[in-house]
Amino acid sequence: MKIIKLNAIDSTNTYLKDLSRNVTVQDGTIVTAEAQTQGRGQMGSKWQSKTGRSLTFSVFKRFHGLPITQQPMIAFAVALALQKALQKLQIPMVSIKWPNDIMSYQKKICGILIENQLEGSKVIASVVGIGLNVNETEFIQLPQATSMRLASGIQFNLDEVLVLVSEEVFRQLQALDEGNSEVLKQTYEASLFRRNKVTAFESKDGVQFNGIIKGVADTGELLLEIEDESLQKYEVKQLKMLF
């Protein structure tokens, strides 16, 4: 791994994408920033981070002939990598809130943003942005947020966490590049937050309804059993989980 450490930056994902367009970026390159002013999450949301207490970084992974249809598996692999890394670091009750938020108990501890680079029918590389709450002890007006320290009572070394998490991300993505996507999908489904539990959702039109998470489609959509017992597929922009 090659680690590039920066002070203040708009977005580590944007920096790494721009860098890869202009120079040949080494597979396994990591860009981390002490402060990220324009950090992004899913669907245009902003990721808030605290200097010296959290990690905001992006990793660059090259693929060799990964079919474009396998894009959802990249998100599955990264989410599972974060879950496994946090479990190694003694974080309790780690699960994945679809599509790729990482939870400890009922609260969000990590956000992920994946941007893939395509060439024809292949994925040639991914830039994986990760925002991880490490040593924060309070979150103002963010009742559903937590940190590794709050969840475990342990104070962590940021550099050590960065290396362990990054190694696990590359390990999982390398395994994906070598095949075995069906096992990956099954493992991801087994790790889903509130799987097989009645959960409240809100549609993009503001309609609230109950559903039971049964898994995910090969194309990445959430599979919900709704009140008439039918199985429906939903994309990220189509609904929000209420919990």
From TrEMBL:
InterPro entries: aa-tRNA-synth_II/BPL/LPL, Biotin_CoA_COase_ligase, BPL_LPL_catalytic. Residues 1-177 form the BPL/LPL catalytic domain. Keywords: Ligase. Signal peptide: none annotated. The keyword Ligase applies. GO terms for molecular function: biotin--[biotin carboxyl-carrier protein] ligase activity. GO terms for cellular component: cytoplasm. Transmembrane segments: none annotated. It comes from the Bacteria. The keyword Lipoprotein does not apply. This is BirA family transcriptional regulator, biotin operon repressor / biotin-[acetyl-CoA-carboxylase] ligase. It comes from Ulvibacter litoralis.
